[in-house]
Amino acid sequence: MKTFTIPTREQVTPADQAIFDNLKTMIGFVPNLYATFANSDHALGNFLALQNAKNSIKPKEREVINLVVSEINDCLYCLSAHTVFAKMNGFTDEQILEIRKAEITFDPKFALIAKVAKSITENKGHVDAVLLAEFEEAGYTEGNLVDIVMIVGDKIITNYLHALTDIPVDWPLAPALK
Fold this sequence. Notes:
The protein is built from 9 helices and no strands. It has 2 domains: 9-51, no CATH class; 59-165, AhpD-like (Up-down Bundle). With 178 residues, it is mainly α. The two termini are 29 Å apart.
């Protein structure tokens, strides 16, 4: 596999330098995966626009999706980063492990979101009609489903970029599932 370069601030475009500065202010460092996007003159800004776009999914639900998709795609980088973010959103270590397995016992709505995200990811966008009916009965809308697809797509982008580059994980490592 080709070794990918993680560009420094001095090696990226002025637009990406500003993004690096914002990331450093917001989270204290520029994550390696975000820096890797900056190998392209436009990818980092475009990706962050997608990632930060408004949607109807609440932050905790979003972390459920991020963890489920990253587990399915076997992305240690994203699992590690989103374990940190899930904790910041109030999930416990035990809950995070349940989320990653998509076997959530502590909240039925999170369990449903996890099942839908898992099905979308594993089945290339296809979800069983019974599961979609459960989703609707739980009060979710078609708009919510579209927003979930957007989040799944966002996470697939980072999962695949890490798989391609295998850059070092610069977050506390997520524990392995038992």
